[in-house]
Design goal:
The structure is a single chain. It is built from eleven helices and ten strands. With about 375 residues, it is α+β, with helices and mostly antiparallel strands. The chain has three domains: about 110 residues, Acyl-CoA dehydrogenase/oxidase, N-terminal domain (Butyryl-Coa Dehydrogenase, subunit A, domain 1, Orthogonal Bundle), CATH 1.10.540; about 110 residues, Butyryl-CoA Dehydrogenase, subunit A, domain 2 (Beta Barrel), CATH 2.40.110; about 150 residues, Butyryl-CoA Dehydrogenase, subunit A, domain 3. Strands 1-4-5-8 form a four-stranded mixed β-sheet. Helix 9 packs antiparallel against helix 10. The radius of gyration is 21 Å and the shape is globular.
C-alpha cells in the first residue's frame, strides 16, 4: 500500500506556503474580498518563491515537486484565502497537463514562462450548454492549412482575464465525446476576447470570465496530442485537479476550525467560555475529526498520483468528502460565532461563501458520486 504521510521535505513546502500566505495575503484579504480584487502583483511574489512552478520539471525552471507537496501548498494558501488557492490550483493543473500531455514545442514555449516568467495559465472547458456533460461542447475548431480557426464561447474560465495561455476544448469532429480536441491558446491572439467577468458568491479573489472566440487563428502546433483526444485530456487534467480542490476544501475547513476554537475559548456566555458547553464542544470535535479525514483522503490520492498508480477514484473520494465537510462545517463555524458570524467582522462568513464552490467546480459532488459508484458496480445502463 502506498504510504501517504507527508515527509519533512513535503511539509517544508507547506510551511513555506503558510509563511507567505500569512505575510502577503492575510493582511489584505478582507479588502480584496470586499472589492473583488484579483491581486495580480501577489503572483509575482509567489512566482519568485517557486510556488507557481511547483509541478514544472526542473529543466524548465520549475521545482519538480510532487503532488503531496502541491496539496500541502494549496491547503495552506486556502487556509488564508480560497480564491488565491483556486488561481494556484488551476495554474498548476495546466502546468502539469503541458508537462505530461504536451509536445516538446509546447513545453519549450510555455513551461518556463509559467514557472519563472510571471505568466499565469487558465482553463476553459464549460459552455452554456456543456458543463457536467462535457461531451456536449459546441465551440468549433476548423483546420485550415497549418492553422485552426476557433469559434464559440467558453463560460467560467478560471484565470482567463489574466492568463497568458489557456487550455481549452473545441470540437474538431462529429458530435459526442470523440470529436473534441484540446488546444493551448495564446491569449494575445486576435479573435480572443474576454466577454464578461463573472461576479460570484465567494472566492472573490479568483478571476472567472466568459471567453469569446471569433475567427481566432491558432497554429496547428497549439493542438495538444492527437485530434479528437481532447476530452480524454480534459478528464485526465480534471482528475489531477481534483486533488487540488480537495486540498482547497481542506484548507477552508482548517480555517473554520482555527476560528471556531479561538472564538469558543474567548466568547463567554452564562459565566463560562462557550467551548465549555457540549453544544459547541461537540461541533468542534466533529469539525476536527472531519478535517483529519479530509487530509488523509487528499494525501492518499496525491501519494498514489506521485507513485504512478491509479488515483482517479481516490481523488474523487477526497474531493467529495473534503468539499462536503468544508460546506457543512463552514455553516457550523458561522453558527458557533452566532450573530458575529453573520457579519464581516469575523472571517467565517467568507469561509461559508467560499466553501460552496468546492462542491461544484472540477466535477460536482454528484459527478464524484457517479464516478465512485461506477467503480463499484460498473455501468449498469450500458
Amino acid at each position: 500500500m502506498t504510504p501517504f504521510e507527508p515527509t519533512e521535505d513535503q511539509r517544508a513546502i507547506g510551511a513555506l506556503a503558510r509563511e507567505i500566505a500569512a505575510r502577503e495575503i492575510a493582511p489584505h484579504i478582507a479588502g480584496w474580498d470586499r472589492e473583488h480584487t484579483f491581486p495580480r502583483a501577489l503572483y509575482t511574489k509567489l512566482n519568485a518563491a517557486g510556488l507557481m512552478g511547483l509541478l514544472v520539471p526542473e529543466a524548465y525552471g520549475g521545482s519538480a515537486a510532487d503532488y503531496v507537496s502541491y496539496a500541502l501548498m494549496i491547503e495552506e494558501v486556502a487556509r488564508v484565502d480560497a480564491g488565491t488557492a483556486t488561481t494556484l490550483s488551476v495554474h498548476s493543473m495546466i502546468c502539469n497537463a503541458i508537462a505530461k500531455l504536451g509536445n516538446d514545442e509546447q513545453r519549450e514555449r510555455w513551461l518556463e514562462r509559467l514557472a519563472t516568467g510571471d505568466a499565469i495559465a487558465g482553463f476553459a472547458l464549460t459552455e452554456p450548454d456543456a458543463g457536467s456533460d462535457a461531451a456536449a461542447i459546441r465551440s468549433r475548431a476548423v483546420r485550415d492549412g497549418d492553422s485552426y480557426v476557433l469559434d464559440g464561447r467558453k463560460q467560467w474560465c478560471t484565470n482567463g482575464g489574466h492568463a497568458a495561455v489557456v487550455m481549452a476544448m473545441f470540437r474538431t469532429g462529429d458530435a459526442g465525446s470523440k470529436g473534441i480536441s484540446a488546444f493551448l491558446i495564446d491569449m494575445s491572439l486576435p479573435g480572443v476576447e474576454v466577454e464578461k467577468v463573472t461576479e460570484k458568491l465567494g472566492i472573490h479573489t479568483s478571476n472567472t470570465v466568459d471567453l469569446a472566440f471569433s475567427g481566432a487563428r491558432v497554429p496547428a502546433a497549439a493542438l495538444m496530442g492527437a485530434e479528437e483526444s481532447g476530452l480524454a485530456s480534459a478528464l485526465t487534467t480534471l482528475a489531477a485537479g481534483r486533488i487540488g480542490i480537495a486540498a482547497q476544501a481542506t484548507g477552508i475547513l482548517a480555517a473554520c476550525l482555527d476560528a471556531s476554537v479561538k472564538f469558543a475559548k474567548e466568547r463567554v456566555a452564562f459565566g463560562r467560555p462557550i467551548g465549555a458547553f457540549e453544544g459547541i464542544a461537540f461541533k468542534l470535535a466533529q469539525m476536527s475529526t472531519d478535517l483529519e479525514g479530509a487530509r488523509l483522503l487528499t494525501y492518499r490520492a496525491a501519494a498514489l498520483c506521485d507513485a504512478g498508480e491509479p488515483f482517479a477514484i481516490e481523488a474523487s473520494k477526497a474531493k467529495l468528502f473534503a468539499s462536503t465537510a468544508a460546506r457543512v462545517h463552514a455553516s457550523e463555524a458561522v453558527q458557533i460565532h452566532g450573530g458575529y458570524g453573520y457579519t464581516t467582522e469575523f472571517p467565517v462568513e467568507r469561509y461559508y461563501r467560499d466553501a460552496k464552490i468546492t462542491e461544484i467546480y472540477e466535477g460536482t459532488s454528484e459527478i464524484q458520486q457517479l464516478i465512485i459508484a461506477r467503480d463499484l458496480v460498473g455501468r449498469l445502463d450500458a
